[in-house]
Amino acid sequence: QVQLVESGGGLVQAGGSLRLSCAASGRTFSSYFMAWFRQAPGKEREFVSSISRSGGSTYYAGSVKGRFTISRDNAKNAVYLQMNSLKPEDTGVYYCAAPRAPGLVPAQYSGDYYYWGQGTQVTVSS
After folding, report:
1. 98 and 32 Cβ atoms separated by less than 8 Å
2. Which of 23, 53, 64, 105 is deepest in the core (most CB within 10 A)?
3. How far is residue 111's CA from residue 114's CA, in Å, rounded to a whole number?
4. Cβ–Cβ contacts within 10 Å for residue 97, how many?
């Protein structure tokens, strides 16, 4: 069982930055591939970024590559998303996610993830 709690969202002007955090429960956090997704009003949930168990490999959606950075601290059971040069189209609810079991390497698709946080709202004004 994994519980995820996101924080760090807020209202920011275009060009600004935010850092999202996801705190995870469980003693096997370091064994889980982790990801961030987002959902804008009226749109489907979309992949933003993911990170391997060790943090050595990271993956990004094309729309955020070069602006967002995912990282993790396995000693703190946490994963982060540093978001720079924010744009109005980055607005949405951001979710932290983990697959059903440790060791799995999910595709960049929400259906491959089982555990979800409650989400944190990010609003970027123009």
Report:
1. yes
2. 64
3. 7
4. 26
Q: Do 70 and 50 meet the contact criterion of CB atoms below 8 Å apart?
A: yes
- Written as one string, the DSSP assignment of 5-65 is EEE--EEEETT--EEEEEEE-STTGGGS-EEEEEE-TTS--EEEEEE-SSS--EEE-TTTT
N residues, the chain = 126
pLDDT digits (tens, 9 = 90+) for 24-73: 998 799 999 999 999 999 999 999 999 999 999 999 999 999 999 999 99
**CA–CA gap between residue 72 and residue 55 (Å, rounded):** 6
CA distance 27 to 119: 22
